[in-house]
Structures are given as C-alpha cells and as structure tokens.
Specification:
The chain is an alpha/beta fold and 253 residues long. 31% of the residues lie in helices and 21% in strands. It has 5 helices and 19 strands.
Length: 253
C-alpha cells in the first residue's frame, strides 16, 4: 500500500475544468495592478495605465514634496542669516568683559571698558552696574555720556536713535530711556512703521528711580524728574516734574 503524502494529495486534487486558467488570469491581473500602483526606481509612480488627470495629480504630489524640501531648507538658511545678521559683536564683547564684575563694584573700570569699546564716556563718570543697550547692530555709536556722571543700575538705553547725556548727570535705579516709537497702523496691525526720536538730557539733571523717558524728550539743564515719572514732553531747565504723565511741580533756584 502506498502512503499518500501532503504533496501528493495536493498535486492529485481535482479542479474543475477551466478553473486554472481563471485563477492564473486573476493572479496576473492583481500583479499588474500592484505594479501600476507601486513607485518605480526613480521614485515616481508607474503612470503607464493612469488617465491624464491622474498622471497630473500624481506628478504634482511628488514635485510638491520636492518643492517643500527645497523651500524648507532655504527658509532655514534665511532664518539663520537673519539671526546672525542681528548680532552686534561690540555688545557681545561688552557682555563678556563686564560679566565677571559684580554689580555696584568697579564703577571706574566699567566706564573704562565702555570707552575701550568705542562708547563715548566722559572723564570721572561712574557706572555702578551693567547698562542694557538695545537697538540695531552698531547702535552703541549713538550713545554719548558726559563727564562726572553717576549711574546706578539697571539702566536701559534704547538706541534706535541718538541719546545724549550731559555732564554731572545722576540717574537712579531701573530707569528706561526709550527712543523707539511707532505710527498707528490699520486694524489688522495697530503697531505701524517705526518712528524713533532722539533724547537729550541736559547738564546737571537728576533722574529718580523707575523713570521712563519717551522718544523726543529734552530735559533742560538742572532739571529734576521725580521717581516713577513718565516723561513724554520737554522739561524746562531748573524745574521739578513728576507723575504719569509728568507735570510741572515747581521751579528751582
């Protein structure tokens, strides 16, 4: 007796007449459809059996991905260039050289470092802490400080326009000198085009703590600005102003 194995049973199985041809055609058809849908070696779809609209759509998808990759890389390069373009090496050097100095100490040395790096600082001026200088690259050339001044800190000086500080000027803690201003824009963006204006502080002025000087302000010689004032207009010489907005208080002898 012969033992019928699994392979013999499969090989000897009876199939209806003509069913083999039908199965072969089905397999060939499935393979053809799979090949049509699979990408070719170049990465593009096999569009030999696609209709014209399908070919356009398929090619658009692959070209779109390429454009996204190229424009994404270009966008990254543009961002990197813009970021590095805003770097001011003079201010970077200032930060590195002033970082070891403790706040309140070495006021003469700190003033000397500012002079060495090209900022106009008069003789015998004392800077008790680090000045926060903001503005476009090269803006430090817009700052001029007279002689025999005394600055406590922090002091923020915005240098989108010129800031001229006279001689014998005393500035208290947390003062902000802001030259940046903007026109009023449309409803989609109210902060419009920039319109900076210079600030001038006359000889002998005394500016109290937390004072805000706005663009275009001129402080007359010998004037005093009380602590916490917001100054938006000219201050006459030898007067005291205070409040927000700052108003005339009295005249000095």
């Amino acid at each position: 007796m012969r033992v019928v194995g699994f392979q013999d049973s499969v090989a000897g199985a009876q199939t209806p007449k003509g069913s083999g041809d039908y199965k072969n055609r089905s397999v060939r058809g499935a393979r053809a459809q799979l090949c049509d849908r699979s990408p070719s070696i170049s990465g593009a779809p096999n569009d030999s059996r696609l209709s014209p609209p399908q070919r356009v759509a398929s090619s658009s998808v692959f070209s779109g991905a390429t454009i996204v990759e190229r424009h994404g890389l270009r966008r990254m390069v543009d961002i990197a260039v813009n970021e590095w373009g805003d770097l001011d090496f003079r201010r970077l050097a200032l930060g590195i050289m002033l970082a070891p100095l403790p706040n309140g100490a070495f006021p003469r040395l700190r003033a000397l470092i500012y002079r060495l790096l090209g900022i106009r600082v008069g003789r015998s001026t004392l800077v008790r802490g680090r000045l926060k200088l903001t503005g476009p690259p090269g803006c430090t050339s817009k700052l001029s400080i007279g002689s025999n001044c005394f600055f406590t800190t922090p002091l923020h000086v915005d240098l989108n326009s010129d800031v001229i500080i006279g001689n014998h000027v005393t500035i208290g803690h947390d003062v902000a000198i802001v030259t940046s201003a903007h026109h009023i824009g449309g409803p989609d963006r109210r902060c419009g085009k920039q319109a900076p204006a210079p600030i001038r502080i006359g000889d002998g002025c005394w500016i109290g703590a937390r004072v805000l000087l706005l663009p275009g302000v001129v402080l007359g010689d010998g004037s005093i600005v009380a602590a916490g004032a917001v100054v938006s207009s000219r201050v006459e010489q030898h007067t005291i102003v205070g409040g927000a907005p700052a108003r005339f208080i009295r005249r000095l002898d």
